[in-house]
Amino acid sequence: MKLEQLKRELECFGEENDKAQSARGHKMLNITRDTGALLAVLIQTRGAADVLEIGTSNGYSTLWLAEAAQRLGGRVTTIERDEDKLALAGHNFRRAGLDTVITQLAGEADALLSTLPAAGYQLIFLDSDRQQYQAWWPEIRRLLAPRGLLVVDNAISHQGEMQAWMTEVRGDPGFITSLVPVGKGEWLVASL
Questions:
Q1: Structural domain boundaries of the chain?
Q2: 90-137 per-position pLDDT tens digit
Q3: Distance between CA 18 and CA 124 in Å, rounded?
Q4: What is the CATH number of domain 31-191?
Q5: In angstroms, rounded to a whole number, what is the distance separating the alpha carbons of residues 146 and 166?
Q6: 3-state secondary structure the chain
Q7: For residues 45-66, b (16+ Cβ closer than 10 Å) or e, as one string?
Q8: d(CA 51, CA 75)
Q9: What pTM value is reported for the model?
Q10: What is the sign, positive or negative, of the torsion defined by CA atoms of 77, 82, 29, 191?
Q11: Model confidence at 145, in pLDDT bands (50, 70, 90)?
């Protein structure tokens, strides 16, 4: 299946699924198309061959990341704790023909982040449990390569949930930040 066709299919599936589900854990909560395009551009311009995603869901965002990373000869590592979503994402990666450039990690991010290589990722995409971001920050800092970029989804739509952490990061002299009004708001955090 052509990748563009699969992306459109997953967009429709995500929208229909999320309208029908009341429980947050059963929703796909996919990024918007313009967010996907922004991620692809950031990977290309940064030359980010090693990408980490925290929060796979059904793999829609991962497809945007992997398509861009593959053009650079790179890879995406993605973390998801929900077994059903892991299986669905794996199926979508095979359908897209991108499964060879995607490594899926199953489990809780707080346990898995410490197992990953220091300074191992030029771009990290964070779209997971916002209540945990501040606790994860020391590990995310460790994983981000010099001049690396962290992209945080829902930074406008759910800014209140992340405000204390965002204030902490903005006060860190090792980083510069920018809030971009794309999709539900993308917060860019660049290491110096």
A1: 31-191
A2: 999 999 999 999 999 999 999 999 999 999 999 999 999 999 999 999
A3: 25
A4: 3.40.50.150
A5: 20
A6: CCHHHHHHHHHHHHHHHHHHCCCHHHCCCCCCHHHHHHHHHHHHHHCCCEEEEECCCCCHHHHHHHHHHHHCCCEEEEEECCHHHHHHHHHHHHHHCCHHHEEEEECCHHHHHHHCCCCCEEEEEECCCHHHHHHHHHHHHHHEEEEEEEEECCCCCCHHHHHHHHHHHHCCCCEEEEEECCCCCEEEEEEC
A7: ebebbbbbbbbbbbbbbbbbbb
A8: 6
A9: 0.97
A10: negative
A11: very high
Q: Cβ distance 78 to 62 under 8 Å?
A: yes
Tokens of 159: 């800014």
The size of the chain, in residues, is 192
pLDDT digits (tens, 9 = 90+) for 48-62: 999 999 999 999 999
